[in-house]
Amino acid sequence: AKFYDSIDIPKLYEELRANHYGNTKIAYVLAMHTCPRVLKIGNFVGPFIPPTGRSIIAGCQASQSLARAYLNDRIQEVRDAVDRNENGDDVSLLTGISCGVHVDDLSTLCWAENDDLLAKGAASAARLWIGKTKAMGIQISDKTVIVPKSRPALAVARSARLSGVNISSLP
Asked: Lesser CB count within 10 Å: N end or C end of the chain?
């Protein structure tokens, strides 16, 4: 399943409200994304397809904004948790972590003072993110890649594999 097809509409609504998206805008955009769909090819029009309750329209200008609203709090939770141990103490593994959402792709950039801290911090972030996506019912693509191939990249791939997700590492 593609990311847009795995978005839970009631959860999306909660995230939009929490992010002050605006009641009128929420009403319009969710009405558009939850109405029955019709496929048209040339002059041929198919039957109405009932809504599934787990999908937004790919290619719509609002979809990227909706995807960000759906993911922002989970991304922030990973950022906040990655430098904390089980007791909540600051262990400062990463110097920084930056996430970006473009259409249905999420990119994460991590940096640290050395490879050991980067490997531990990025592997921890990957493990946390996989847990968050599983809890949200989102599938991580089997085409996920981490670059460049390095000790930290291999640590992330290993951490993901242990969490049930295959991530390849490219040179």
From this structure: C
The beta strand positions in the chain, using DSSP E, are 40-41, 44-45, 96-102, 105-111, 145-146, 168-169
Angle, alpha carbons 76-77-82 (nearest 5°): 100
- Cα distances (Å, whole numbers) of residue 21 to 8, 15, 28, 30, 156: 17, 9, 11, 12, 34
Tell if the pTM clears 0.85, that is, is over it: no
How far is it, in rounded angstroms, from Cα 7 to Cα 70?
8
Using one digit for the tens of pLDDT, what is the confidence trace for 97-123?
777 766 667 778 888 888 888 888 888
Best CA proximity match to 67, nearest among 118, 20, 132, 12? 12
